[in-house]
Design goal:
This protein has 267 residues and is α/β, with parallel strands linked by helices. Helices cover 36% and strands 20% of the residues.
Length: 267
């Protein structure tokens, strides 16, 4: 993929999700105006579908749940008090805010997002809610504004598929993790080779379909970055809500929501 193409994808994704952060009026999901991953339902209902509990949603501050994910990475991350957590593509902060009380006052949560409006929104929510152990940084997940070996756990919710340079994402994730650190993300992966008309459709990139990579490619990228104990757990039931992301395109025929776990070797 050329640098020009990568830059065009990032610009389109940034602009699309920037509108979501500003609560601007949008059209039908997948029309080119509404960002996905986002089933056409109220955010609360979407979150329940994606694996969040009622207790989770009661704990999330107002404005942090935009219903834009494809799973609940915190459910597989096994967070512990005192850990430092990094959320790749943190958006308005739902997963960062859920991690905050789990890691506690001795822990820390860092969210990184490339969309200025999302970072501003998340920071405002953190300030209002008094989340002293949470911070949000503006940056790209392919070039993280995070120090080497400074993070215990990396989470992410349906964001890595949006990157035009996924090997760089995994190299950066490996760099910032401490030895023995772990990756626990929810994302969409391609369950078959994507047709040219799907992969080449710009609106399907922001809709979390066209940028999805197959499991075998992701496994190779992660192993090349240095990860071990790589595990994928596809959620076949996710095809139903994925089919709603872009009406008429049957995205569930091509991609599936999957939990992805891996560890960085201990010294």
């Amino acid at each position: 993929m050329s640098q020009t193409t990568e830059d065009a994808i990032r610009t389109a994704v940034r602009d699309t999700y920037g509108r979501a952060a500003l609560d601007q009026p949008m059209g039908e999901c997948g029309s080119g105006d509404l960002p996905c991953c986002s089933p056409p339902a109220p955010a609360h209902i979407s979150a329940i579908r994606l694996g969040y509990s009622e207790q989770d949603l009661m704990a999330v501050p107002d404005g942090a749940d935009l219903g834009l994910g494809c799973g609940n990475p915190g459910a597989i991350a096994s967070l512990a008090p005192g850990e430092t957590v990094l959320d790749l593509g943190s958006g308005s902060g739902i997963d960062a805010f859920l991690a905050s009380p789990v890691v506690g006052v001795r822990g820390r949560v860092i969210g990184v997002d490339m969309t200025p409006a999302m970072v501003s929104r998340a920071r405002a929510i953190a300030d209002t809610g008094g989340y002293a152990n949470v911070e949000f940084r503006l940056g790209e997940i392919e070039n993280l504004p995070v120090a080497d070996s400074s993070v215990d756990v990396i989470i992410s919710n349906c964001v890595i598929n949006l990157s035009p340079d996924k090997p760089a994402v995994f190299r950066e994730a490996f760099r910032v993790l401490r030895p023995g650190g772990r990756l626990a993300v929810s994302d969409v992966v391609a369950s078959t080779t994507l047709p040219d008309d799907v992969r080449g459709d710009p609106r399907l990139y922001s809709s979390c379909i066209a940028g999805a990579s197959p499991l075998w490619d992701l496994a190779e990228m992660m192993a090349d970055a240095g990860f071990e104990r790589i595990r994928f757990s596809p959620k076949r039931e996710s095809r139903a809500f994925i089919n709603q992301w872009v009406p008429g395109r049957h995205g569930g025929d091509f991609v599936v929501s999957t939990t992805i776990e891996a560890t960085k070797p201990a010294d």
